[in-house]
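Consider the tokenized backbone below.
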């Protein structure tokens, strides 16, 4: 990081570094804590000392998913190890009142082939499978990756700091998204609706992690 700072003399540093797979965070809590918390803390403090604004990413998983439509000041209560790690990072920045910009991200999707995001993965599945089992009760506010990039650029230009939810406008379940895709592609793939609890996962997943983006839109 010191070499990059010296070479480019940046006003902002965008810290994308993370282990965002909840299952890996559960399986390797110490290792992922170093990646998601301790290492990021070091980078943040180096930025602050050099008057560089760090742009840091949190997650919708800082919430337990019982309510949905969460605001920036909604009480965090993660049930995932990954969510707990990100909650610690949020609190570290906010409690110390550091001049950083935190984006609490919703589910990010892209449109490029093999980008391994929600929409493109669903498209792959409907081309290969006759039937897909999908959760009807996991709800989020997905955001397009190009919109995400544009918002980061605008926020940096405006010299924003603080915590903001960065999400799309629409609350959707996995089932609703898949149904839309099947309709667009005129696919014959059948959908089997189920609960998120029906999947055998290492940790119980929060269900409604939809975020309100009103504060960010008003800026």
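A designed sequence for it:
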């Amino acid at each position: 990081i010191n070499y990059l700072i010296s070479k480019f003399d940046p006003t902002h540093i965008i810290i994308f570094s993370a282990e965002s797979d909840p299952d890996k965070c559960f399986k390797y809590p110490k290792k992922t804590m170093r990646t998601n918390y301790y290492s990021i803390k070091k980078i943040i403090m180096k930025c602050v000392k050099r008057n560089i604004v760090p742009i840091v990413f949190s997650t919708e998983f800082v919430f337990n998913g019982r309510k949905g439509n969460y605001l920036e000041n909604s009480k965090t209560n993660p049930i995932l190890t990954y969510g707990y790690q990100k909650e610690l990072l949020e609190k570290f920045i906010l409690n110390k009142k550091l001049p950083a910009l935190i984006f609490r991200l919703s589910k990010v999707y892209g449109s490029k082939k093999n980008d391994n995001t929600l929409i493109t993965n669903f498209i792959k599945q409907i081309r290969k499978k006759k039937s897909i089992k999908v959760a009807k009760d996991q709800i989020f506010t997905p955001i397009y990756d190009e919109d995400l990039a544009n918002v980061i650029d605008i926020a940096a230009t405006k010299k924003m700091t603080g915590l903001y939810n960065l999400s799309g406008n629409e609350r959707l379940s996995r089932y609703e998204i898949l149904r839309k895709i099947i309709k667009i592609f005129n696919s014959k793939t059948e959908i089997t609706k189920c609960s998120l609890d029906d999947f055998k996962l290492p940790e119980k997943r929060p269900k409604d992690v939809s975020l309100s983006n009103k504060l960010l839109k008003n800026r």
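The first strand starts at residue 12 and ends at 15.
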